[in-house]
């Protein structure tokens, strides 16, 4: 018994059906493979993030500088939002960085200088207020802004899992120096240290 030859039309239909079956098989990966792929993507992302953190904070000096830059930026951003960016001392306005540019002393100095740069404008805006009240209210505003910015910086650094060791020490030393410098400003203006409970 002879088998009739397959026409071109039948051959094309058969090859299309085979191709569709292959494509459907490729499109429907097993759930296990999908989960494995998702897990490996998450792992790769975590490794990439870790590499970024290590690149940013790997070298002790370089890592400390980047952390202090984050601290400075977060604090100055909150002060600028509160008091007005047009008078702000920003990182972009800083020229020629010395080797110890990001030391706690220098960073605290720039933050305090930037914050106190707003005082004259604040006095003009509150000219009817007695000077003592101007100073106390101004210091209360910028202290709250500094605390908020410091908290944001700590969150960023903690989220990157680098807020420890010298980075933490430098940040805390900077915050302490800021307090000292603001108290020195108050004494220079009013001839007295803050009373217990003052902000």
- How many DSSP-defined strands? 0
Distance between the termini: 106 Å
The structural class is mainly alpha
Helix content range of the residues, please?
Answer: over 70%
In total, the number of domains comes to 2
Q: What would you call the quaternary organization?
A: single chain
Report the sheet with the most strands, covering strand number, pairing sense and barrel closure: none
Structure, briefly:
It holds the Pfam family DUF5610. This protein is an all-alpha fold.
Task: Please describe what this structure looks like.
With 199 residues, the protein is mostly helical. The protein has two domains: 9-57; 59-199, no CATH class. The protein is built from seven helices and no strands. Helix 3 (60-83) packs across helix 6 (131-159) and helix 4 (104-116) crosses helix 7 (165-190). 21% of the residues are buried. This is DUF5610 domain-containing protein. Residues 66-185 form the DUF5610 domain.
What is the strand and helix layout of this fold?
Elements: H1 8-27, H2 31-57, H3 60-83, H4 104-116, H5 119-125, H6 131-159, H7 165-190
Features of the shown structure:
199 residues, mainly alpha, elongated
């Amino acid at each position: 018994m002879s088998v009739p030859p397959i026409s071109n039309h039948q051959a094309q239909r058969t090859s299309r059906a085979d191709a569709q079956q292959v494509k459907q098989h490729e499109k429907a990966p097993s759930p296990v493979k999908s989960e494995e792929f998702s897990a490996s993507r998450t792992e790769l992302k975590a490794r990439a993030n870790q590499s970024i953190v290590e690149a940013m904070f790997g070298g002790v000096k370089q890592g400390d500088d980047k952390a202090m830059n984050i601290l400075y930026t977060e604090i100055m951003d909150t002060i600028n939002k509160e008091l007005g960016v047009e008078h702000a001392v920003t990182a972009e306005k800083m020229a020629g960085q010395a080797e110890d540019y990001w030391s706690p002393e220098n960073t605290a100095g720039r933050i305090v200088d930037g914050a106190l740069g707003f005082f004259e404008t604040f006095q003009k805006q509150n000219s009817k207020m007695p000077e003592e009240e101007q100073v106390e209210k101004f210091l209360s505003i910028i202290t709250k802004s500094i605390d908020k910015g410091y908290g944001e910086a700590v969150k960023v650094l903690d989220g990157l899992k680098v807020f420890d060791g010298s980075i933490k020490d430098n940040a805390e030393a900077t915050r302490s120096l800021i307090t000292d410098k603001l108290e020195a400003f108050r004494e220079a203006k009013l001839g007295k240290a803050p009373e217990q409970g003052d902000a």
